[in-house]
Each structure stands twice: as structure tokens, then as C-alpha cells.
Design brief:
The chain is of the alpha/beta class and 277 residues long. It has helices spanning 39-52, 73-89, 101-109, 127-134, 159-176, 196-204, 206-210, 224-230, 239-251, 262-276, and strands at residues 8-9, 12-13, 18-24, 56-60, 94-97, 114-117, 138-141, 184-187, 217-218, 256-259. The chain has an eight-stranded parallel beta sheet with strand order 8-7-6-5-4-3-10-9. A hairpin with a 2-residue loop joins strand 1 (8-9) and strand 2. Helix 2 (73-89) runs parallel beside helix 3 (101-109) and helix 3 (101-109) packs parallel to helix 4.
Length: 277
């Protein structure tokens, strides 16, 4: 099934795959918790990602790994605010990875350009109206339950069809709240309420999600199913598997890859594009 990607999103033309660099300013994220707890260190890391070719720097102040404990918005804001402000002042395109409207507001006021919500604007009733009022691009990710409960909801008769239907419903709800369709990007939510077999099936059937007509953001970097397929238990050592899965996703219609290893992902995409062209 050939799918024509949306021509642009968040000020980015999508005539080639784009890269979102992951910058977690958390003590407990699954593969890099604590690595960027110091704001100056985090800002330097974000700038290095941009210099390596990242189009977006995704800043998160709350871990969403399976079983994660929620963080109060005030603490989340304390973690992300100096980093978002520093990167935005450097002229970088910043997204804020949060489900809390208060954190969205603080980050947007500090210069963030994109909201990336793992709950697809369901966690906080104030989130959708806020995004609509700002008119900013938004990523709606598929998840069932919360990070603390999601793996208990990983039951599907047809994972691709169900994820597509549930993302379509969230997109319709966002539009009903006043968010323009052109502002929406969709994320299948690999590893979120999905076991390894579900993630594999979703990757193979990405064109069915691309048929929803919005660009797809795919985050497979260092995920558990990569470890299952590669035999590598350590998340930080899953680079090879992450690159392979990311390139496969691009070949199946992904428009943006959300990655930990920006320079290696950029190099892999350059080679892939040269060979594909």
C-alpha cells in the first residue's frame, strides 16, 4: 500500500525522514535516567543533538517507562523549564514531552514549539483546550491506561486495526476541541500497552496507520522489544537493533524517528536514502 505523507508538519517539510532527539531530564527513565539532571549538561546535550542533525529536541521531565510513578507538575516544570528555555533561546525547535497542561503551558511560554503527549490529550482535561488556544503542533500517542497500568491493557485481537481506530478517535476528539488536523502527528506508541509481538506487528503494518492521513512519529529506540529480538538486555546497548527497526519503520511510512542516538541515526538514514534513491 503506497501512502503519500503529509507535505509538512511543525514547520518541517516531510520530503525526507526527520529526527527527534530524546532529552530526558529525569532521574528514572528506562535507559538514561539521571544522565542529564544538571540543566547546563542537558542544554549542552540538546545542542549537540541539533548539531548532529536532529530536527526536534524532545524534552521530558517525567519517566513514562512501564510501572513509572507519576511526578507532580510542579516538579516536572522545575526539571524542564531551564532546559526548554535554554534550547529555545539557542534557536532550536523544542517539543515538550508531557501529559500535564500546566507543564505544557510553562514549556510553551519558555519557547517550546510542540507538545508531545503520551496520553493523546486524555490525561489532563485542560490539555486539549490549551493546545488549541496556542495553535501549536501536537503529537498524539497511542496508549491504554497509564504508564503504571498500561501493560495490563496489552490485549488485542488485531493490534494494527485497534491502534488505528483508537488513534482516529483521539484525532477526532482533538479536532472537536479546536485543534487543526494539520497540527496533528500520530505516534503508535511502541512499548506502551504493547508486548513485543504487538510492536513487531505494528511495525510491519505501519502503512495502515499512515492511511489515517497524518505523519507518523515512531519511537523504537532502545525499546524492550528491540532487546527481545536482538538478545541484548541492556537498553543502552541496543543501538544496532534500534537503527534496524528505525530504518524499517521509515521504509513502511514513518515520517519522524524519535531516537536516543542522533548522529548514528542520521548516518543510517543518509545511507538508507542514498541506496533507496
Amino acid at each position: 500500500m503506497a501512502i503519500s505523507p503529509a507535505p509538512s508538519w511543525a514547520g518541517l517539510t516531510l520530503d525526507r525522514p526527520r529526527v527527534m532527539g530524546i532529552l530526558n531530564v529525569t532521574p528514572d527513565s528506562f535507559s538514561d535516567g539521571g544522565a542529564y539532571a544538571d540543566p547546563a549538561q542537558a542544554i549542552a546535550a540538546g545542542r549537540a543533538m541539533a548539531e548532529a542533525g536532529a530536527d526536534i529536541i524532545d524534552v521530558g521531565g517525567e519517566s513514562t517507562r512501564p510501572g513509572a510513578t507519576p511526578v507532580p507538575p510542579a516538579e516536572e516544570i522545575r526539571r524542564i523549564l531551564p532546559v526548554v528555555r535554554g534550547l529555545a533561546e539557542a534557536g532550536l525547535r523544542v517539543s515538550i514531552d508531557t501529559s500535564n497542561a500546566a507543564t505544557m503551558q510553562a514549556a510553551l511560554d519558555a519557547g517550546a514549539a510542540i507538545v508531545n503527549d503520551v496520553s493523546a490529550l486524555t490525561h489532563d482535561p485542560a490539555a486539549a483546550p490549551l493546545v488549541a488556544a496556542h495553535g501549536c503542533p501536537v503529537v498524539l500517542m497511542h496508549m491504554r491506561g497509564t504508564p503504571g497500568t498500561m501493560m495490563g491493557h496489552a490485549q488485542y485481537a488485531d493490534v494494527a486495526a485497534e491502534v488505528a481506530a483508537e488513534l482516529a478517535a483521539r484525532m477526532a476528539a482533538a479536532e472537536a476541541a479546536g485543534i487543526a488536523r494539520a497540527a496533528i502527528c500520530l505516534d503508535p506508541g511502541f512499548g506502551f500497552a504493547k508486548r513485543a509481538e504487538h510492536s513487531v506487528a505494528l511495525l510491519r503494518r505501519l502503512p495502515e496507520l499512515a492511511a489515517l492521513g497524518r505523519p507518523l512519529l515512531v519511537g523504537v529506540s532502545r525499546k524492550g522489544f528491540i532487546g527481545r529480538l536482538s538478545g541484548e538486555e541492556r537498553p543502552a546497548a541496543r543501538l544496532g537493533g534500534s537503527l534496524a527497526a528505525g530504518l524499517f519503520a521509515v521504509s513502511r511510512g514513518a515520517a519522524i524517528l524519535r531516537v536516543h542516538n542522533v548522529s548514528e541515526s542520521i548516518a543510517a538514514l543518509r545511507v538508507w536514502r542514498a541506496l533507496a534513491d
